[in-house]
Design a protein that fits this description.
Elements lengths: L5 E4 L42 H17 L7 E5 L1 H6 L8 H5 L5 E3 L5 E3 L6 E5 L2 E2 L16 E8 L12 E7 L7 E9 L3 E12 L2 E12 L17 E15 L2 E15 L19 H6 L11 E17 L2 E17 L2 H8 L1 E21 L4 E28 L5 E32 L2 E13 L3 E16 L2 E12 L32 E15 L2 E20 L6 E22 L2 E17 L8 H9 L2 E2 L6 E11 L7 E10 L3 E2 L7 E2 L3 E12 L11 E8 L7 E4 L8 E3 L4 E9 L1
Parallel strand pairs: 5-8
Antiparallel strand pairs: 1-2, 2-7, 3-4, 5-6, 7-8, 9-10, 9-35, 10-11, 11-12, 12-13, 13-14, 14-15, 15-16, 16-17, 17-18, 18-19, 19-20, 20-21, 21-22, 22-23, 23-24, 24-25, 25-26, 25-27, 27-28, 28-31, 29-30, 31-32, 32-35, 33-34
Length: 744
């Protein structure tokens, strides 16, 4: 059965977030695996030991117990099964954000960013229920789609076990060697030098099982084009990724697992040809120095580069003891970002050539416990704690101010000077929670709890947050939910810089202002309500509405040439919207469609004010403005049909659509304009063969053809204006990619 996308408000009896609802089976049971053609069961492994069924049973039971540790009662969950992931154009080769764009309320942005329900980057990622600390990656994605056996996106009024980043929780159920035994080698590529070989292999021996995957990506489309042309200028990237999973099942109630990953990516930053030389200070444009440097470098020939590295590891112990279930984990993550400028070019166009480097090292622990008291009450409690070290260094080449002219405009010397700045800080964030899932009636579930969070980094704050969710099933196939959550969101450590603003005073890179109040934690009141209806077998529909009232709303922007996001606060913020979703899954046919409306506004910037022009600060202090990532209408849809689905050579045809009515841009007021709407269509054709070469150790062979932006629509994600927007970016033009994968 092919499942494109399934949605539901999680109930007390739902195994969330790892259960594809339309399939009704917990992920990890071995029924649907990455190695199976759509609609076909996995081929039996002739080399598998006789204990394989028992192993799979134990694996499935422990997977269900792990999922039950963190239910999403009352929240809204969108599930992607393994088959659904393979149906998205590109399949396992597709970036993770490309898969998530098929969920309601997810808006695409430049640099591969996504926004969920009007928030900027408040999305947390979990691997098998363990939250991964935030890192510094801007362009690349550390987590690979092919590592996921299934994944879910949980949003809405979250129960108290979810803290810190709460716009959405992306939980990836990883592949393992028991249910994904064997290997798969693939080569994928095509337009714009796209070359993407990959390898994965899993297996088990005794009480151990293992799974590993790695890939290399070379292309010329890693970052959005700054022009509407078919090919970007200076956009080469080379990326390496590796992820592994090792597990030891001591007995039917005890399991130890280790997950580790490495990502190393180098990027050329696309150039914008035909730009006029201008410095950060407007007075430069007519100065003698600007005239002297004019024509010394072409904006199409700049050589700016950025390198991003991420390494992480998670060690977990899962234990079942009578009425208690436990998972406790320790984790580490290191990430770094280094920007290398075009020394002369950045001086000519920006008035500063800055080598910038940031790194964050995070370590911590997470524990979750479930106590099944009786049929009506299930208690859950636990904690999360992160210790983080943030280091920031810059070496800036600038021109020193030598005086002022007759009009009072600054005059600069001809010889650049170098200014070094650096800072480091260690801090920590922590959270405790407790909640009770109570069933006063058979059709009614009440989940209530408390969460206490604190942050001691650049800011020192804490908050006690109540959570309440109700789920009511008045009729078979009808589920209503309503919830309230108090949220506390610490500012991500990696987007807060401790560098000194005053060091560049009196230079060609002087900031628009000097005020630099500390970025504070965001505090929200979040309300959510919705309904899910099973209309016919295989056909369901849902409606969800939400409202967020924020204090110290956190936003992020790019200020300066380095592509490093910096955080700031709006004193007040409001985000509200609604989502409509439907899906149909029957036999070889799957269809789904989503539509969302959202409004996100803010007022009065109260931190990192030096990044903004005084006139903009004065305007925003008294008036509401749209957030730069505010997009009113977002929609996605897709479908797939598998021909010959009962044979060993199925053919799957699938298509997806993404629509947006435009992000924000500046007019005569900040973020006062909207970019034009756009719609793109993608197409995928996959042909599978069960035993193409008639060789015993070669299993499924798969050929695929994917077309992105089928009708070659030219559309603009950003025009270079807006609060915290650094450059224009255009969506990818028509791209044709092909691939072959061989299972063994």
């Amino acid at each position: 059965m092919t499942v494109a996308l399934s949605t539901t408000p999680a109930r007390a009896d739902t195994i969330a977030p790892a259960t594809p609802v339309a399939q009704g089976r917990p992920a990890g049971t071995g029924t649907t695996t990455s190695s199976s053609p759509a609609g076909q069961p996995a081929a039996p492994d002739a080399t598998a030991p006789s204990s394989a069924p028992e192993r799979i049973t134990v694996t499935a039971r422990l997977d269900r117990a792990r999922s039950a540790l963190q239910p999403s009662t009352g929240a809204t969950v969108y599930n992607f099964s393994r088959t659904a992931i393979e149906t998205v154009p590109g399949g396992d080769n597709a970036p993770l954000n490309g898969v998530l764009l098929q969920a309601p309320g997810v808006t695409q942005d430049s640099y591969g960013q996504i926004h969920v329900r009007g928030d900027h980057n408040e999305v947390q990622f979990r691997l098998d229920g363990v939250q991964l600390p935030e890192g510094l990656t801007v362009f690349g994605q550390t987590l690979m789609t092919r590592f996921a056996d299934s994944l879910s996106m949980t949003t809405g009024a979250l129960p108290s076990e979810y803290g810190f980043l709460q716009a959405a929780v992306i939980d990836i159920t990883t592949k393992n060697g028991t249910t994904n035994a064997g290997g798969d080698a693939s080569v994928y590529g095509g337009a714009r030098d796209y070359f993407f070989p990959s390898l994965q292999y899993g297996g088990h021996h005794g009480k151990w099982d293992y799974f590993a995957t790695g890939d290399f990506l070379h292309d010329r489309m890693a970052i959005e084009n700054t022009t509407p042309s078919f090919n970007a200028v200076h956009d080469l990237s080379n990326q390496y990724h590796a992820l592994g999973h090792l597990r030891y099942t001591a007995d039917e109630d005890t399991r130890i697992s280790l997950i580790a990953g490495v990502s190393n990516a180098e990027y050329q930053l696309p150039n914008n040809p035909g730009q006029q030389t201008q410095f950060q200070q407007p007075a430069y444009s007519g100065s003698a120095l600007a005239q002297q440097l004019a024509g010394s470098v072409d904006s199409a020939g700049l050589d700016e580069r950025q390198k991003e590295i991420t390494d992480f590891g998670i060690l977990s112990l899962q234990k079942e003891i009578g009425k208690f279930s436990l998972q406790t984990s320790a984790f580490v993550r290191y990430s770094s970002l280094r920007y290398s400028p075009d020394m002369l070019g950045d001086l000519v166009y920006n008035g500063i050539a800055q080598q910038a480097a940031r790194s964050v090292f995070s370590s911590g622990s997470q524990s979750d416990v479930t106590w099944r008291i009786n049929r009506r009450h299930t208690m859950r409690f636990g904690y999360q704690a992160f210790v983080e070290r943030n280091v920031s260094k810059t070496d800036s080449l600038v021109y020193q101010q030598a005086g002022v002219d007759a009009d009072g405009e600054p005059v600069y010397g001809d010889n650049p000077v170098s200014i070094h700045d650096g800072s480091g800080r260690t801090g920590w964030i922590w959270g405790l929670y407790a909640q009770d899932e109570w069933k006063p009636l058979r059709s009614l579930t009440v989940n209530y709890g408390l969460r206490l969070d604190g942050v001691d980094e650049y800011t020192h704050q804490k908050q006690l947050s109540p959570r309440l969710n109700l789920v009511w099933t008045p009729l078979r196939g009808t589920t209503l939910h309503v919830g309230y959550s108090r949220y506390f969101t610490p500012p991500p450590f990696e987007v807060v810089s401790g560098t000194s603003v005053s060091r560049l005073d009196g230079t060609s890179a002087a900031a628009p202002g000097t005020r630099n109040d500390t970025v504070k934690a965001e505090s929200d009141h979040y309300f959510d309500a919705g309904i899910t209806q099973q209309i016919l077998p295989g056909w369901r529909a849902s409606f969800d509405a939400y409202y967020k009232l924020a204090h110290n709303l956190i936003d992020e922007g790019q200020f300066g040439a380095p592509i490093i996001l910096s955080g700031f606060n709006y004193r007040r913020g409001q985000v509200n919207g609604y989502e409509v979703s439907t899906s149909y899954d029957r036999g070889p046919l799957s269809l789904y469609g989503n539509m969302a409306w959202s409004r996100a506004i803010g007022k009065d910037i109260t931190s990192a004010q030096f990044n903004f022009a005084p006139d903009d600060l004065a305007y925003i202090q008294q008036r509401w403005v749209h957030l730069d990532h505010d997009q009113r209408w977002t929609a996605s849809a897709g479908g797939s049909y598998t021909f010959f689905h009962r044979t060993g050579h199925p053919t799957r045809l699938s298509a997806t659509m993404v629509y947006g009515n435009g992000l924000r841009a500046d007019s005569d007021i900040p973020n006062g304009a909207k970019l034009p709407q756009y719609v793109t269509f993608n197409l995928s054709l996959v042909q599978s063969f069960r035993d193409l070469f008639h060789v015993p150790f070669l299993k499924r062979t798969q050929l695929r053809l994917d077309v992105t932006n089928l009708f070659d629509r030219t559309y603009e994600l950003r025009d270079g204006s807006g609060i915290g927007v650094g450059a224009p970016q255009y969506g990818l033009r028509r791209t044709i990619l092909t691939g072959i994968s061989q299972q063994f």
